[in-house]
Amino acid sequence: MSYTAKSFSNEPSGPTVVTETIPGPKGKEAIAKLGEVFDSRCAYFVADYEKSTGNYIVDVDGNVLLDVYAQIASIPLGYNNPNLIEVAKSDKMIRAIVDRPALGNFPGADFEQIQRDLLKHAPKGQTHVWNGLSGADANELAFKAVFFNYLSKKRGFEKPFSPEEEASCMENLAPGNPEIAILSFKRAFHGRLFASGSVTRSKPVHKMDMPSFHWPTAEFPAYKYPLEQFSEENKEEDARCLKIVEERFQNWRCPIAGVIVEPVQSEGGDNHASAEFFQGLRDITLKYGAKLIIDEVQAGCGGTGIMWEHERYNITPPPDLVTFSKKMQSAGYWFHDPELIPNQPYRQFNTWCGDPKGIILAAAICDEIVNNNLLESIRETGDYLYDKLETVQNKYSKIVSNLRGKGKACFIAFDLPSGELRAEFLNKMKLAGVNVGGCAEVGVRLRPGLIFEKKHADIFIAAMDKVLSTL
Amino acid sequence: MSYTAKSFSNEPSGPTVVTETIPGPKGKEAIAKLGEVFDSRCAYFVADYEKSTGNYIVDVDGNVLLDVYAQIASIPLGYNNPNLIEVAKSDKMIRAIVDRPALGNFPGADFEQIQRDLLKHAPKGQTHVWNGLSGADANELAFKAVFFNYLSKKRGFEKPFSPEEEASCMENLAPGNPEIAILSFKRAFHGRLFASGSVTRSKPVHKMDMPSFHWPTAEFPAYKYPLEQFSEENKEEDARCLKIVEERFQNWRCPIAGVIVEPVQSEGGDNHASAEFFQGLRDITLKYGAKLIIDEVQAGCGGTGIMWEHERYNITPPPDLVTFSKKMQSAGYWFHDPELIPNQPYRQFNTWCGDPKGIILAAAICDEIVNNNLLESIRETGDYLYDKLETVQNKYSKIVSNLRGKGKACFIAFDLPSGELRAEFLNKMKLAGVNVGGCAEVGVRLRPGLIFEKKHADIFIAAMDKVLSTL
């Protein structure tokens, strides 16, 4: 019996669209009223989460949509998952809500086990975790760990801060607050706070008008598809991009302490790269004494058919830090070198040091994925879906291009000819009963939960065929 | 009947200390084991939250301590508060846990009400809120709002970004990413990420080895106590500090778009300032076209006997932004000028745009405070406690000094002669049954929840008297 049949006996057999526009009249009114107390300009529709179930999201107009966007890739196990509801009702969770500890100072007796439950699901080669609150927070905490390590090593791990360092850092000046950088890639997305914004390079709206650190950027491979047809060109593209990374290390105005990279650039357009590229990055970071940070915020937690997407590439030695959030419903970074634990207490510290609620949920989500073979299941769905999408791409070859994500479960994307057509496509897909999202300028990205099955893929393909025939 | 009598019928009548050290043998073992999976070097002890109740925290050794630190000022209504447990068990909360929405894109039908429930408790003069995840996050989101507003106004709110701005910001350079600053004060604490770290000026360990923005710092008043004895000197101190702020605006290397200040500098030593100082800041920010951000992360949510500490000063016009976190168990910034809503959607945006779980809890906490007159109650306790502390200060005048926080409920601090003596005091207080925390180099800060009553104050005073007699 499939997971949805077992866990979501009330999941609809297909979408239902009852309004001529989405949002419909009730949705429009709800967005307007919400706008009085919240910035609702980005709201696609207002959901009724009480009625949503499994792969289906219901809106306040009563539209029932197959959801292949899943809260910007953040709902791994469907709406109102009964097993997660049990976790939410547990005494452990209730205590985590009402007695939220300052984990660093007053951890609870159950926290060791909570953390061990999470650590079971660490990427291969990673043994430790530091907890945060969001993807941006996780990445910035990782940067702190990297900078502390780099500069403590330079200073001598046992050596105290000098009076000059102490005085200068209180004025935000070197040597206490030196210029030191994280390298990131064009089209990367790593968050929207100030350091995470400094490494984000996807769209101007993500970072305009923010003061930022003058950190280096390199180029992420832009492959030609289908991959098998352009293997030689794509290999050259890897070499070209890696050369730029190495040049930055040689020429940048300040030390580069780390490189951050997504295993698949997601917001930036679902840009994939090869095992050779990632190993090349690993080699360069080792050569120049920098840390490699893999940002698994969007790709991680099973969406690509393996728990952590970068594991696919067998990067050797494993990356130094791996950040997570979104589908994990918790955030933080994995690591394995104890040297990345700051040499003094209270350097990596804040009131909450994470959130036990999220950690409990993250472990429960990962357990559910493992115990129900959902990675295997989503890979099967993905292979099935990709085949169908190839047929659609061939049928609409003037509209659909650059189908990508083969072999990566349902972490699939394709391009449309323009932003306008993409917007029309996304809107018509909603009216055809499917909630799907875009990425970069002309991309469409599929991000269903891990409970997306062949029957759901069939509904998606039928809707897509119908919509494309009208474009 | 008092709140604790009504809500915590099982609250102990006093502390019980059963081990010779805290942590005792079980606690030491628990910290060591936790250290395998979490940085436990900062752990004072390991708590048993299942057994903790009301004002009392229980550790794994069975020690029962009166808690006047309350998770670094973050537990407003005691441990295992029965009314919050009901909220934690509610369907609304369970949905918020298992169906966490991307609030910006797919808000739930219940979110408008959830947000309105929170907004009821906004500071005087504030009408809007933007939601975040932690104090540092709230402050950085506030900075974004301030920078967007300042630069959009300069550009023209209706004007699109120029091609030059778009291209330069992708390289982290001006004009898209210009140099622009937030002014903060010496001894301030506003968080430990990169922009929040740039305005934090409390201790080197909070920000050493982090690249930071070269933003200006001014001096926060350092008053002489008792205030009534030094009113003339303290007035001069206000003028001196305000003059420095104004000089920064006149001379800084880049525009200063905002000033961030705590109503009471907490981590930095419980430094208070006068209504005249805050009004002076308001006047200077208005004069130079900058925004005033009040950081209520630690002082806000009733701890000082009013819901928002800065309301005490009747700052006119009200501050532009007020940030909150900690006791609210949620985070974000309040504001009132619609111009602080970015001129384009998706400028202030992220996957989660806050956390309904926390917002639900924040509103419930504030409701509970209001419905049970806990502000009045904590003010009464505070006045009672302050009187007793004055007596203690007089009795131990060679050890205790600078008692401060009069009329601010139990948001009280005092100094000891040295860091060593402070450490000894805090440790001995635990062994006398009281968990209390330090601030800055030699300060002791009291941060009980709002359910701290006279009977608890008596226990605190008795323990303090006993401990001081041994120093």
UniProtKB/TrEMBL annotation, chains A, B:
Keyword Signal among record annotations: no
The entry's keywords: Aminotransferase, Pyridoxal phosphate, Transferase
EC number assigned by the record: 2.6.1.19
Record flagged with keyword Aminoacyl-tRNA synthetase: no
Chain intervals with Polar residues compositional bias: 1-19
Gene Ontology biological-process entries: gamma-aminobutyric acid catabolic process
Gene Ontology annotations for the cellular component aspect, listed alphabetically: mitochondrion
Cofactor: pyridoxal 5'-phosphate
GO MF term (any one): pyridoxal phosphate binding
Family: Belongs to the class-III pyridoxal-phosphate-dependent aminotransferase family.
Name this protein carries in UniProt: 4-aminobutyrate aminotransferase
Organism: Pichia inconspicua
